[in-house]
Amino acid sequence: MCAHHLSSQLARDLVQKTSLPVVGAPLFLISNPKLVIAQCCAGIIGSFPALNAREEEGDPIMLEAWLAEITEGLDKHNQAHPQRPAAPFAVNLIVHKSNTRLERDVEILAKWGVPIWITSLGAREFVNDAAHQAGAIVLHDVIHNRFAQKAIEKGADGLIAVAAGAGGHAGRQSPFALIQEIRSWFAGPLLLSGAIATGHSILAARAMGADMAYIGSPFIACSEAHADSQYKRMIIDSAAEDILYTDYFTGVHGNYLRGSIRAQGLDPDNLPDAKSGLDYSSGQSKPKSWKQIWGAGQGIGVIEKTRPAAEFIDQLRTEYHQAAEQLNK
After folding, report:
1. What share of the chain is helix, strand, coil (3-state, %, to 5)?
2. Distances from the Cα of 138 to the Cαs of 33, 130, 186, 266, 267, in angstroms?
3. How is domain 3-227 classified at the CATH fold level?
4. Which residues of the chain have pLDDT under 70?
5. What are phi and psi for residue 195, nearest 5 degrees?
6. Helices within the chain (DSSP H only)
7. Angle at which helices 33-41 and 309-328 pack, to 10 degrees?
8. Which of 33, 245, 273, 288 lies at 20 to 30 Å from 253 by C-alpha?
9. The predicted structure's pLDDT at residue 272
10. Are the CB atoms for 9 and 188 separated by under 8 Å?
């Protein structure tokens, strides 16, 4: 079978392992085993960043403990509900050279047989090789077509197109432009991220060429998410106009809640030079991104309450099928 057909089959296989074509994006400091298990048991691929398993010197390896908890939780679900098995889960690896845990975490993911690896901030051939030797597939997130081509050249199996409007370190390009450029040469697994928060938008993502939707910000408000209650409330109370795209906090452009910026004494519309590292008024060090400055995507305007992840996913599934029926009338 040629590479094109193999890639297409891999995409179909990934979708068939879910009851709704969605991956719950790995949320830094927020995604945890409880959320991942809830997402997978509800039929979508759950994920978490490996670095969320925080470790202090002298502590046991928390990442292994998390993988054990997730594996046991999904096995328990599958034994109780063989007619609707859980979707697989994924772990996100920051593959930038600044991640001193990378080699060790790669070994742990391989040891535990993590089925899907999501890589960010660079493409590393040794990570892809290790995943393939362990029988896993690699999805790499990109913000434009050039990065997508490099990722596939270095051995990634699939791509996550992070378009304008996505939470955290998002790209600038329209999802239409990004998806159609990648699809012009790539037939493998392709996910779309950016302001997707309803079943209708999941169907739209598939209609434009993506295999699955990649949803993050709406899950911040879910009861299982490890997020501050004020963060969850701000997600519920905010809309697209309350999101600011800036590189001030990390040096890389991302989308953040304006309310969290104001809460730290900063004016979202008058931030200092990103290279200064100083508060525009007091001269104090800038607040910590993610812990004090909260990321979110433009799709949060439809998030109305805190609820279990399974309940939100059920709503997405209902909306998805309703949207499909409406188009077929």
Report:
1. 40, 15, 40
2. 20, 10, 15, 39, 40
3. TIM Barrel (3.20.20)
4. 1-6, 56-60, 273-285
5. 65, 30
6. 3-16, 33-41, 62-80, 102-111, 125-133, 145-153, 175-183, 199-207, 229-237, 258-263, 309-328
7. 40
8. 33
9. 77
10. no
